[in-house]
């Protein structure tokens, strides 16, 4: 019987997917790193009976860093980090032994299905997993396809089963774009962090820190936050006046009217409009409009929508 290895991005995600696909009929045990579990069950794949092994990583398997000698601040000019310093891939968390764990679970497997998150980072992790697993999998015969990519947007029975039914391939170009972004972050971040840490030390008492970090994304974002904070701090409130009129439609109903002009910043003008309004005993309706609105039931939120709603509705 052939074996299908399936890999998700987080242990909890692996358990949820395995439970859905196996309909709860699975056995589980901890892997050699003690963090990631392995869930096993029997089923069919590509028209044949197979044994499924579902496990996970914990985010990125590898990380990018400079070679050892370029990590010595005193011996390397920060400018060298932009072009001359070579980089290498290292295990992101050596304590997890993730590469060895994947190789142990992938040894002797015939197919691999990648259940990583459906974004560029997830695509990059797909190829980190493949680099570890492909060398120990059973050899292919006659160009048989052995690598599959599952694409899904929610952890529901319908979505997971649909993703399993229409497996695709991982996108190497998206993975390479993440490699490029990681190298840019590393070179720019390290070069500017080292430069400004050395530059500011001893010049300002409150900046005499052992590390003043720079992030290509975080530092500009911090600038937006500071700019907004400065605007809030320098804001000077200005008094304004609003005109409100209440009209009686009949004995039991009244309406509060909104003013087209909304507000004025001159009290004398506001008082003039108020006096004019008080002279009138009746109001004439010039036009009416009527329309129906249907409120749809709320949809399940993906991460981006959840953040948007949390920001607009909860003020987070």
Automatic annotation (TrEMBL):
Its EC number is 5.6.2.1. GO terms for molecular function: DNA binding; DNA topoisomerase type I (single strand cut, ATP-independent) activity. The keyword Isomerase applies. It catalyses: ATP-independent breakage of single-stranded DNA, followed by passage and rejoining. The keyword DNA-binding applies. It is an enzyme of class 5 (isomerase). Residues 3-153 form the Toprim domain. InterPro entries: Topo_IA (IPR000380), Topo_IA_2 (IPR003601), Topo_IA_cen (IPR013497), Topo_IA_cen_sub1 (IPR013824), Topo_IA_cen_sub2 (IPR013825), Topo_IA_cen_sub3 (IPR013826), Topo_IA_core_domain (IPR023405), TOPRIM_dom (IPR006171). One of its GO terms (biological process) is DNA recombination. Keywords: DNA-binding, Isomerase, Topoisomerase. It holds the Pfam family Topoisom_bac. SUPFAM superfamilies: Prokaryotic type I DNA topoisomerase. One of its GO terms (cellular component) is nucleus. Residues 171-316 form the Topo IA-type catalytic domain. Belongs to the type IA topoisomerase family. Introduces a single-strand break via transesterification at a target site in duplex DNA. Releases the supercoiling and torsional tension of DNA introduced during the DNA replication and transcription by transiently cleaving and rejoining one strand of the DNA duplex. The scissile phosphodiester is attacked by the catalytic tyrosine of the enzyme, resulting in the formation of a DNA-(5'-phosphotyrosyl)-enzyme intermediate and the expulsion of a 3'-OH DNA strand. This is DNA topoisomerase. It comes from Leptonychotes weddellii. The gene is TOP3B.
């Amino acid at each position: 019987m052939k074996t299908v290895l399936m890999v998700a991005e987080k242990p909890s995600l692996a358990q949820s997917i395995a439970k859905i696909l196996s309909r709860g009929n699975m056995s589980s045990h901890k892997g050699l790193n003690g963090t990631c579990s392995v869930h096993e069950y029997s089923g069919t794949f590509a028209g044949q009976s197979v044994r499924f092994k579902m496990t996970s990583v914990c985010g990125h398997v590898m990380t990018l860093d400079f070679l050892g000698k370029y990590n010595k601040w005193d011996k390397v000019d920060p400018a060298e980090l932009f072009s001359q310093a070579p980089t290498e891939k290292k295990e992101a968390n050596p304590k997890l032994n993730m590469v060895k764990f994947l190789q142990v679970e992938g040894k002797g497997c015939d197919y691999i299905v990648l259940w990583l998150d459906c974004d560029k980072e997830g695509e990059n992790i797909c190829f980190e997993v493949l680099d570890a697993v492909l060398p120990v999998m059973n050899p292919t015969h006659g160009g048989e396809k052995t690598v599959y990519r599952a694409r899904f947007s929610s952890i529901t029975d319908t979505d997971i089963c649909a993703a399993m039914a229409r497996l695709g391939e991982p996108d190497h170009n998206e993975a390479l774009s993440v490699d490029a972004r990681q190298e840019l972050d590393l070179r720019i971040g390290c070069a500017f962090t080292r430069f400004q840490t050395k530059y500011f030390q001893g010049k300002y008492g409150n900046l005499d820190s052992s590390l003043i970090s720079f992030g290509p994304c975080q530092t500009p974002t911090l600038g937006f936050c500071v700019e907004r904070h400065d605007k809030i701090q320098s804001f000077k409130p200005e008094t304004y006046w609003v005109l409100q009129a209440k009209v009686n439609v009949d004995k039991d109903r009244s309406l509060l009217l909104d003013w087209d002009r909304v507000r004025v910043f001159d009290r004398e003008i506001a008082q003039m409009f108020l006096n004019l309004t008080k002279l009138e005993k009746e109001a004439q309706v010039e036009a009416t409009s009527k329309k129906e609105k249907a409120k749809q039931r709320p949809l399940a939120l993906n991460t981006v929508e959840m953040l948007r709603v949390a920001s607009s509705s909860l003020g987070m």
